[in-house]
């Protein structure tokens, strides 16, 4: 059975067959240089770099007599599990003249992220991350912003930003799923220091055309941003993009990890419209406006709903955008909060403080740590 341990200066003679800078890498705190052992004997080298944006595999080498025994594949699988649990991609480079290694990485689910004259840059995403990047792709990111209308309308944004600025006080705010900065940018303009977490690289690229707010790339249920915050917020139903109860509970716990004592976690979420479902009919029409129809189809056993957004232009053609969700009842949301150490401070029907009732289609819930 192999094991991985951190390299020490005494390992330099062994490591020097692959790494002429082994001592410098051992002494560099930004790099993690490891020795791979088999039955207590050194048989390989593993070098990693960990950042808020990615887990990077800088090199893995094995002695010839232990190659093709599944050790390298097992190590990469272990790194994939670590990347998935921390919500960041696993990245590496492979030489273009090494087709065997490229085939291995392709088989393990890595995808091309870039290249230069000598190397392919490969990236592996967890299934959840890959799903989000597929939905929130470059085309979606380009069409997401609608300045002055829809969710970008002043009457929508102004009360949202007012309430969040009030809750942040003199502290820092962290937005889970910051997207293209719909809320974060005007909140920062109000003087609140804002950081973010975002899964979709395409949405983040769109955000970067507007601001240089600090953003960590990855899963909002796992990624850790440095420092403490007085406010973490998650708006516009986005917690429902996490498709399992386990992921949603992990999201609450990650919010708690970022908050100072007494800090608040704010969630904006719709109330499932199951009372509108006729017997035997699995869908509801949420909106039917000229040029736009929203149709939601429900799987009540899994608490899943798929939102079908139909946009009509001139003529007879329509564009369809679909997004999957796991819906959450307010009572279930409160239990998730309790599991993470929160108590419900307030719940209103909207950002202006309208009382929440049994007929409210959505809610803004404020939890305190």
What can you tell me about this protein's structure?
The protein has 369 residues and is α/β, with parallel strands linked by helices. It is built from eleven helices and 18 strands. It has helices at residues 12-15, 22-27, 71-86, 99-107, 127-135, 138-144, 154-168, 184-189, 201-208, 245-258, 330-339; strands at residues 2-6, 32-38, 41-50, 55-62, 90-95, 111-115, 119-124, 173-176, 194-198, 215-217, 229-234, 259-270, 283-289, 292-299, 304-312, 318-326, 343-348, 362-368. A seven-stranded mixed β-sheet has the order 1-2-3-4-5-7-6. Helix 10 (245-258) links the parallel strand 11 (229-234) and strand 12 (259-270). Helix 6 packs across helix 9 (201-208).
The largest pleated sheet is described as: 7 strands, mixed
Major beta sheet, strand line-up = 1-2-3-4-5-7-6
- Tell me the overall shape: globular
By DSSP (H or I, 4+ residues per run), the number of helices equals 11
Residue share in helices?
A: 25-40%
Task: Jot down its keywords.
single chain; 369 residues; alpha/beta; seven-stranded mixed β-sheet; 18 strands; globular
List the helices and strands and how they pair.
Layout: E1 2-6, H1 12-15, H2 22-27, E2 32-38, E3 41-50, E4 55-62, H3 71-86, E5 90-95, H4 99-107, E6 111-115, E7 119-124, H5 127-135, H6 138-144, H7 154-168, E8 173-176, H8 184-189, E9 194-198, H9 201-208, E10 215-217, E11 229-234, H10 245-258, E12 259-270, E13 283-289, E14 292-299, E15 304-312, E16 318-326, H11 330-339, E17 343-348, E18 362-368
Parallel strand pairs: 4-5, 8-9, 8-11, 9-10, 11-12
Antiparallel strand pairs: 1-2, 2-3, 3-4, 5-7, 6-7, 12-18, 13-14, 14-15, 15-16, 17-18
Helix pairs in contact: 6-9
């Amino acid at each position: 059975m192999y094991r991985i341990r951190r390299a020490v200066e005494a390992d330099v003679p062994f490591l020097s067959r692959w790494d002429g800078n082994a001592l410098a890498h051992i002494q560099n705190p930004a790099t993690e240089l490891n020795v791979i052992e088999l039955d207590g004997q050194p048989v390989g080298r593993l070098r990693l770099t960990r950042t808020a944006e990615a887990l990077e595999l800088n090199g893995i080498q094995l002695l010839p007599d232990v190659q093709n025994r599944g050790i390298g594949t097992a190590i990469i699988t272990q790194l994939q599990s670590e990347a998935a649990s921390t919500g960041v991609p696993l990245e590496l480079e492979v030489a273009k003249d090494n087709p065997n290694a490229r085939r291995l990485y392709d088989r393990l689910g890595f995808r091309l992220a870039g290249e230069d004259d000598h190397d392919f840059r490969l990236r592996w995403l967890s299934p959840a991350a890959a799903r989000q990047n597929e939905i929130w792709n470059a085309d979606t990111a380009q069409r997401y912003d609608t300045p002055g209308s829809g969710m970008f309308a002043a009457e929508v944004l102004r009360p949202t930003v007012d309430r969040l600025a009030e809750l942040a006080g003199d502290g820092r705010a962290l937005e889970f799923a910051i997207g293209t900065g719909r809320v974060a940018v005007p909140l920062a303009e109000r003087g609140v220091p804002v950081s973010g977490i975002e899964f979709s690289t395409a949405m983040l690229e769109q955000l970067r055309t507007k601001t240089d707010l600090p953003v960590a790339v990855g899963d909002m249920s796992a990624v850790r941003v440095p420092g403490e915050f007085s406010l973490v917020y998650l708006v516009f139903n986005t917690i429902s993009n996490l498709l399992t109860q386990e992921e949603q509970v992990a999201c609450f716990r990650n919010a708690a990890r970022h908050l100072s004592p007494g800090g608040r976690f704010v969630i904006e979420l719709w109330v499932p419209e199951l009372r509108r479902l006729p017997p035997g009919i699995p869908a509801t029409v949420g909106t039917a406006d000229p040029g736009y129809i929203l149709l939601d189809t429900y799987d009540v056993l899994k608490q899943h709903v798929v939102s079908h957004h139909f946009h009509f232009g001139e003529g007879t053609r329509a564009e369809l955008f679909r997004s999957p969700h796991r819906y959450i009842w307010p009572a279930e949301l409160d239990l998730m909060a309790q599991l993470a150490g929160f108590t419900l401070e307030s719940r209103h029907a909207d950002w202006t403080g309208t009382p929440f009732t049994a007929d409210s289609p959505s809610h803004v819930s404020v939890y305190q740590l």
